[in-house]
Write the structure tokens for this entry.
Amino acid sequence: QDTQEKESVTPERAEEAKLKAKYPNLGQKPGGSDFLMKRLQKGQKYFDSGDYNMAKAKMKNKQLPSTGPDKNLVTGDHIPTPQDLPQRKSSLVTSKLAG
Amino acid sequence: FLGAGGGNDIQWCFSQVKGAVDDDVAEADIISTVEFNHSGELLATGDKGGRVVIFQQEQENKIQSHSRGEYNVYSTFQSHEPEFDYLKSLEIEEKINKIRWLPQKNAAQFLLSTNDKTIKLWKISERDKRPEGYNLKEEDGRYRDPTTVTTLRVPVFRPMDLMVEASPRRIFANAHTYHINSISINSDYETYLSADDLRINLWHLEITDRSFNIVDIKPANMEELTEVITAAEFHPNSCNTFVYSSSKGTIRLCDMRASALCDRHSKLFEEPEDPSNRSFFSEIISSISDVKFSHSGRYMMTRDYLSVKIWDLNMENRPVETYQVHEYLRSKLCSLYENDCIFDKFECCWNGSDSIVMTGSYNNFFRMFDRNTKRDVTLEASRENNKPRTVLKPRKVCASGKRKKDEISVDSLDFNKKILHTAWHPKENIIAVATTNNLYIFQDKMN
């Protein structure tokens, strides 16, 4: 509905330019697979004792890599530690809405 | 925007607020769904901690008819608990994604509640009498010494304080590989659907050990995945018809009479996009977060990140009405992407007569659009406005330029205060609005 001058950029495109300036390696596919795969993998907690022990054996003499900022991404080389996994606690307390 | 007073515009007043006052919100207390039952007498909420709280409207006091009855706690129970699927290394949240009420058939009330993986049918029943005068038991339940029993009497039912019990009657499990986003009860009141990111299943309320898969959009090669199911709903009157929305902004209407597997839609609703406006954000903000049929069944409403659209089921190529919820956010998409707010899933709802639609926004604002007058209003759910019968003051966001007095600038909006869930009483002008951890009830000013 807005009539834009040919030279001026729509607000959305301006925001896109801002984002690409900050993150030049942002995936080429707009929207698309990255978000969807992340959505489908919600809740996935990777700990495989086989992987863990093999990685430990491979890296006997090296420093074990620790987790990056996103602990839930599949990284392959990363060895999860119990500290990485968030505490799960079931809430058997009454809701405050009922208070 | 809607000015105060004037004609037939509704004047909304604060009625009640439920929940803790403190700012430090425990994750479990985050409200994740709100739903009135078919009569509006009951209001259910679900939270991230897997708990359901049901409120019941008080009977109206005929003498003091300042306002309609208040909602008080009727029942509360733990619906779902956290689980861990060891086989798949998958942590299953107990968060209640949706609650849907069954129409009332007898004295008890029934609702379906679901988390990411399991749907449960709950029976909520009242007990207001208990048998007294047993021959072999004392009133406290202890067994009497039989040698002390010298007479026989017939136990009788005596009134007791009302007790409301919730019991799980059916558990519908193990039918979803992906995360359930919707449940919807069919107008036949015998079946219902559950939808996850890639599949939709049809269940019979009596049968828990099997369900029929009616939609499957999983590609053979997951690398080719481009679209997921975001919401699904049965038509309110046609028991063979349902719709599902996608992350690409399309809605598909399916007819279960056409084939067992409804992978081919009967209708595809999609608004053509102007390719010159396409950006990195286009697909993300076009993703539909909610789809709701009108009560009449003639229209459906969809919510995407920035707007609400009304579709006529007879017209697939564009919506008949579009309402901007917070267009001023279009020039903030970069930061909304960085803080993940762009992925927030707002719901929307119709009023009982399908003349007004409502949805939430940020800063604890919520918006209403009157389809007849074409006027809209922004209101705020805040404890500062909590004097009963005081009319809520409309809010205005200043997108740019000079901010007028009483306006709020876009940059001052609190994006942590989101109203994702709202519900409208099926018959009255009573609305339930959920902030992060509080439930607000507003009513129109009577008299």
The radius of gyration of chain A is 22 Å. Helices of chain A lie at 11-22, 32-40, 49-58. Chain A has three helices and no strands. Confidence is low (pLDDT under 50) at residues 1-7 of chain A.
